[in-house]
Amino acid sequence: MEDLLKRITFNQKVLCGKPLIRGLRISVEMILELLAKGADEHEILEDYPELEPEDIRAALLYAHHMVAHETILDRVATR
Fold first, then answer.
1. Are 55 and 21 in contact (CB under 8 A)?
2. Which fold has domain 2-68?
């Protein structure tokens, strides 16, 4: 799984340093947004032929790591 995370790169000169896929101008954020809007892996790969299936999994794994390691300072219960 750590090999997947090696696909996530950062460059201050590209998209203000947001996490990118393999140095491409394709951000993890964009992949997550496409998935959230209902695009499936096949559609994403068709629209962005420079991507590989492992890139999509890497974006998901990166998001998981970010959420799993976030610090929760205060939780407010909803009613």
1. yes
2. Arc Repressor Mutant, subunit A (1.10.10)
Q: Which ranges constitute the DSSP H helices of 1-79?
A: 2-5, 28-36, 41-47, 53-68
Unique residue bearing structure tokens 């032929």:
49
Alpha-carbon span 8 to 29, nearest angstrom: 11
pLDDT per position as a tens digit, 5-37: 999 999 999 998 899 999 999 999 999 999 999
Domain ranges of the chain: 2-68
- Rounded Cα distance, 57 and 77, in Å: 32
CA proximity to 26, closest of 6, 56, 2: 56
The whole model's pTM is what? 0.83
